[in-house]
Amino acid sequence: MKVPVNWMLALSVASVFGCISREAIKREQYFVEGERLYGVYCANCHQANGEGMANLYPPLHFPGDKKRFIQIVKHGLEGEITVNGVSYNRPMPANPGLQELDIAEITTYVYNKWGKETSYTPIDTVKKTLRDFKQSDLR
């Protein structure tokens, strides 16, 4: 009996995803989309490798508490900062057009790619962080 190729493919995909948890699937979805968004919104300054641009733009750094990272992605940052012992004083523009899901995906990508995390950043974490935001948190 001949089984159509489409059914064989569907069964293969179903068997693979049947062994992966929902959290792992969501992490992978956020990671892939976060990589795309990072390329659009972040890589021009922070570069594709996250190492920044000479003495102009800092490499990415990972506060233990993601709240600061989330707030900076959304609201930008002005004033001098020091990263890895080097001072930088160029403003990072705000990204008011980014939605909470976009920020969750970028955060997932960055923290999984360079921050040694293996889970995704839930959209509820981003919503709460942005809801509780105070301008003084960025100083």
Automatic annotation (TrEMBL):
Record domain Cytochrome c: where: 29-114
Keyword Isomerase on entry: no
UniProt xrefs under Gene3D superfamilies: Cytochrome c-like domain (1.10.760.10)
Keywords: Heme, Iron, Metal-binding
Transmembrane regions listed in the UniProt entry: none
Pfam families: Cytochrome_CBB3
InterPro entries reported in the protein's UniProt record: Cyt_c-like_dom (IPR009056), Cyt_c-like_dom_sf (IPR036909), Cytochrome_c-type_DH (IPR051459)
Keyword flag Ion transport: no
Protein name, per record: Cytochrome c domain-containing protein
Species of origin: Ravibacter arvi
Source taxonomy: Bacteria, Pseudomonadati, Bacteroidota, Cytophagia, Cytophagales
